[in-house]
Design a protein that fits this description.
Blueprint: E1 2-3, E2 6-9, E3 12-15, E4 19-20, H1 23-39, E5 57-58, E6 61-62, E7 69-74, E8 79-84, E9 94-97, H2 101-113, E10 127-130, H3 138-151, E11 155-158, H4 163-170
Parallel strand pairs: 7-10, 10-11
Antiparallel strand pairs: 1-4, 2-3, 5-6, 7-8, 8-9
Helix pairs in contact: 2-3
């Protein structure tokens, strides 16, 4: 509450500056802060659907189009190793930072769309096989999944890395 103290001396009034009590204003501030904290909706965690390899196999091996498949192997130091088609020890692996993978996937998607018309409709869509290495960071795998989602890769799978691939990535 505001108080005005007035002193009288010899018939003259002396007016002093008003003294304002800020306690109710501080109380109101804390009540408003509490109200907004309680009524704010906190973002709920969402989940990302991960497609695992199909149960439709021939001889225990999942069938995929070799010409339209890229394999991504996240390695240490925020790098990703990748190769097109089936794995071969003779075929060199490409390495690049995880941050540049989105551009590479976009280019590969366009390249796969331009394959000859004699191939099936499935072969004209990009297939990605994601094989996390033991020393990769979790955030790199999430980044790659997000990039595949942004590029709208229709087919992808999360698979265990083979010993040969692991050896080639570890030697890098």
């Amino acid at each position: 509450m505001a108080e005005i103290l007035v002193e009288q001396k010899g018939g003259r009034r002396k007016v002093q500056a008003p003294r304002i009590d800020f306690t109710p204003m501080v109380d109101l501030g804390f009540i408003l802060i509490t109200f907004f904290i309680y009524t704010t909706t906190i973002a709920r965690p969402g989940s990302l659907e991960i497609n695992m390899p199909s149960r439709e196999t021939i001889g225990g091996i999942t069938v995929y189009a070799d010409t339209s498949t890229i394999t991504l192997i996240p390695a240490g130091n925020h790098k990703v190793a990748w190769y097109m088609g089936a794995f071969s020890q003779l075929k060199p692996m490409n390495y690049q930072p995880v941050a540049e993978t989105k551009d590479m996937l976009t280019a590969m998607k366009k390249q796969v769309a331009g394959l000859p018309l004699s191939l099936s409709l499935q072969a004209h869509k990009l297939h990605v096989i994601l094989k996390p290495n033991d020393n990769c960071k979790y955030e790199d795998v999430v980044q790659l999944l997000d990039d595949m989602n942004l590029v709208e890769v229709p087919y992808y799978a999360l698979v265990d890395i083979s010993a040969e691939e692991k050896g080639m990535v570890d030697n890098f």
